[in-house]
Amino acid sequence: MISVYQLKPKFQQLLRPLVSGLANAGVTANQVTVVAMLLSIATGAVILWQQSLVWFYLLPIVLFIRMALNAIDGMLAREHDQKSTLGAYLNEFGDVISDVALLLPLAILPGISIELLAGFIFMAMMVEFVGVIAPMVGKERQYQGPMGKSDRALVLGLLGMTLPLWPIVGTYLNYLFMGLIILSVVTMVNRVKAAL
């Protein structure tokens, strides 16, 4: 199934000169991973603290930066001999923490079902968990869609752009969450199938 993740190779090509410069400057993959996680936590905290829709405009900006940082840390690790066990833990742990931090602010929207939001956050974690299990059975880490990390970022970024402009969109979010949960289940099935 198609996924935003499939665009990653082209995005990496654009970032390669920057990655080389960072490597030459002594920046490590783990440092980039931590920065991406802290940026996500700070963004989520600001939106929750301000309790205003206008702050949702931060989401598409931060999600784009986070996507770039995620690509950069991976390229530093693979192409500049910075792979480490700690890096693997930070990468997976950081992605889950970042997702939760950026999804939680949706709870401030009126009429939102906390149960459905929590269900989607849980499914987001389960999707990544299923992908991480693959190496335990001798396969590569699985990234299939249709609702992987990049796809969630796209949905959240679009919400960040539309909610301040058209708050009425928020009244349909519970239906969106139902659909996203179903797509997450499909993603889990796709990842399990690919690893079998």
TrEMBL record:
Native source species: Kangiella marina
Q: Does the keyword Transmembrane apply?
A: yes
Give TM segment ranges. 21-48, 54-72, 93-112, 118-138, 175-192
InterPro entries recorded:
CDP-OH_P_trans, CDP-OH_PTrfase_TM_dom
Q: What keywords are assigned to this protein?
A: Membrane, Transmembrane, Transmembrane helix
What is this protein's name?
A: CDP-alcohol phosphatidyltransferase family protein
Asked if Transmembrane helix is a keyword of the record, the answer is yes
